Amino acid sequence: MLRHTHLRPVPGLEEIRLHLADEVLPLWGAVQIETDDSDAALPYWAFAWAGGLAIGHYLREHPEAVAGRRVFDLASGSGLCAIAAMHAGASTVTGADIDAFAAAAIERNARANRRRVTVVRRDVLDEEAPDVDVILAGDCWYDARLAERVLPWLHRARARGIDILVGDPGRRHLPTDELVELAAYNVRTTTELEDLEHKQARVYALRPATGR
Ligand SMILES: C[S@@+](CC[C@H](N)C(=O)[O-])C[C@H]1O[C@@H](n2cnc3c(N)ncnc32)[C@H](O)[C@@H]1O
Q1: Ligand 1, atom 25, residue with closest C-alpha
Q2: Is the CB of residue 162 less than 8 Å from the CB of residue 135?
């Protein structure tokens, strides 16, 4: 897979370097061959998604949100948000993703940035939220089924006093009524993934649940 990616600074967050792909289709084809699965997931982990980029910008501007705190990066992909949290001074960071390639990418990218990120490769959404201070959820709202499971999990975490930071460019299933906007950024992504090279992406806190 490394043949399809290059270690390079993340546009707009140059202090972070990731193994990123230029094109999605050749890499996706390689994943399908390697896994012998024509339904293999898109290689999300080889791109810095707009939601994760927004969280990266936010943590650069507001390191106090995570400094000295235990952080869990849900749907970590490349590990972008996890690494941004370590840059901002988090005490520990765990990155979770269901995709085996993502788990490997998080490890590889953390190493490339000389940061320590613990990797969890399983679906945690049926479990209790982890014992952490902050959960990051970068670009999780692109899929109805995932969105349906992420929201109650985040609410349960919030009810336990965990701070939630959501980063998103306005995907179809984003639960805007449940969120409070904290910041907006014009982030640079790629037309391999999006309709435009620059996207407006926002960072939100989760509104406390009422009467749940
Ligand atoms: C659009 S990518 C976002 C990656 C990263 N957060 C970013 O913003 O660049 C979504 C990621 O969610 C992961 N994912 C999907 N379902 C998941 C689940 N149930 N638990 C953890 N990760 C999941 C996918 O494998 C993918 O890596």
Answers
A1: 99
A2: yes
Sign, CA dihedral 177-125-158-70, equals: negative
pLDDT tens per residue, the chain (212 residues)?
678 899 999 999 999 999 999 999 999 999 999 999 999 989 999 999 999 999 999 999 999 999 999 999 999 999 999 999 999 999 999 999 999 999 999 999 999 999 999 999 999 999 999 999 999 999 999 999 999 999 999 999 999 999 999 999 999 999 999 999 999 999 998 888 888 889 999 999 999 876 55
126 alpha carbon – ligand 1 mean position (Å): 15
Q: Describe the crossing of helices 80-87 and 100-112 by its angle, rounded to 10 degrees.
A: 30
Q: Is 206 in the pocket of ligand 1 (CB under 6 A)?
A: no
Question: Does ligand 1 have an atom closer than 6 angstroms to the CB of 96?
Answer: yes
**Distance in angstroms (rounded) separating the CA atoms of residues 142 and 181:** 18
The best mutation among 13, 31, 44 to test binding of ligand 1, ranked by most ligand atoms within 8 Å of the C-beta, falls on: 44
Number of other residues whose CB lies within 10 A of the CB of residue 44: 21
What H or E segment, with its residue span, contains residue 103?
Answer: helix 100-112
Q: Which two tokens stand for residue 29?
A: 């084809």
Q: What six digits make up the tokens of 41? A: 């997931």
